[in-house]
Amino acid sequence: MLKFKSICLITIYFLSAWHVHAQQKYPTLVRTSLEDEIIILSVDKPVYFPGDTVSIKVQRNDNTATTLATPILIIEGTTLSSIDNNNIYRAVIPQACAPGLYRVRLRVKDPQGRHYIYETDCTVNVEEHQVIEQISRYVSIEPKAGGEDLQSIVTLDRNQIRTLRVIFQRDSIRLGKGPQFITIRTSVQLRDGTTAQTFERRVLTFRSDKDPTRDRAMLIQYRKAYGEYAAIRPEEFEQVQINLDSLPDWAIIKINIEPDYTIKIGGYDRSNSYTRYFHVRGPKIEIGLALGIPKVLFDTQANDTINYGNYSAMVRFYYVDEITGGRFPVNLGVGTFGVNSPIDVGAGRGGFALSIFINMVEMTRMVGIEISKTITAGLELAPFVPIGRKWRFLIAAQVGIAL
Questions:
Q1: What is the pLDDT of residue 237?
Q2: Which residues contact 113 (CB under 8 A, 6 or more apart)?
Q3: Looking at domain 27-126, which of 3.50.50.60, 3.30.70.60, 2.60.40.10, 3.10.290.30 is its CATH number?
């Protein structure tokens, strides 16, 4: 019984293997008007790639037929060569061949020298090699390249930001890599660290052979094959404009370009990306409101005692570095000081001050240590004019927030 089951399993295996092999052939019946002959065309593979050799076999049911039957492969740049006594024809698929189904026609020459062309159902299915190319080989940003990180960020005015575009250097894509599916993510980050806008575009490009007709044909094929890319315009094979709705002063524009991994071509590679940073140029002098909690360390009129309150409210003037977009760590302010509330000013309880504030938190940002941009902490030098008392010069430590 066990032996019988083993024989059955082996038989089923060979039948299945024969069936799979048979599916790799695509026979087509063609009847000629001269001799009513049946000619069978078949190819040796179900799928071909650029650079592959395709073999087309011609099988005739009448060995005495006087007509000459020759297959024609409708791929530009291919010529079928006869081998094996005109029964098998071979050709190499060009590297620049676009993906698609290519029909095989049949040319028949009768004994009188007349030629006939017959359509057949035999096709050659060409697919592309889909290998992810290194983004940095063929992607750049113009007219300014941008900074590779926040320390090397490039500052541009609004008109320059609006002209930014991603350029695809298609000639730099290596042969055999196939189409490159790309995701372009653009984000706008405000100075306080919040993200105001995020945009995402999916586009594709491929190596160019300087043929606009082929570019158009491939665009149509990609639109049919990949629904996500149906809205792509032909000019976006070469470049994609970066479009932003609003550009706040000194906002950070981050442009990240990486392969679109929703198209299952290869494994995820975080290093295969291209990221650039830009600042939106704003005014060099900014005005803002700052609330603080001061602690007086030195008072030139210490004998004239004042009960300093726990709060101060200042209108501050900041100088902004036009390259980095960062505020200079020293700023000027004018407002109330040593009060119990921002407007609680009276005899013996606070007054008005002209403040020079050294912001230590801003200094840490300059060396790459990021702390919340609304927090301030440092040393304050302030000529102070209290109500009903002598003016004095104060040195105070202060922590607070910048609004």
A1: 86
A2: none
A3: 2.60.40.10
Residue whose pair of structure tokens reads 């004018």 in the numeric block: 334
Q: Do you know the residue count of the chain? A: 403
Q: Are 46 and 65 within 8 A, CB to CB? A: no
358 exposure class (CB count in 10 Å sphere: 0-12, 13-18, 19+): middle
pLDDT on residue 46: 86
Instruction: Give the rounded distance of the alpha carbon of 379 from its chain centre.
Output: 45
What is the band of 19 on the pLDDT scale with cuts at 50, 70, 90?
A: very low
- Residue among 337, 323, 249, 342 nearest 287 (CA): 249
CATH 2.60.40.10 maps onto the chain at 27-126
pLDDT in tens, 165-195: 999 999 999 877 878 889 999 999 987 778 8
Q: Hey, CA dihedral for 229, 234, 235, 237, is it positive or negative?
A: positive
Q: What angle do CA 190, 196, 197 make, to 5 degrees?
A: 130
Contact between residue 364 and residue 353 where contact means Cβ atoms under 8 Å apart: no
Residue percentage of the chain with pLDDT more than 70: 85
Token reading at 137: 């080989």
Helix (H/G/I), strand (E/B), else coil: 332: strand
Beta bridge partner(s), residue 291? 313, 401
| For residues 383-388, average pLDDT | 87
Two tokens at 286?
A: 């900014």
Contact 255, 186 (CB under 8 A): yes
Per-residue pLDDT at 22? 40
Average pLDDT, the chain: 82
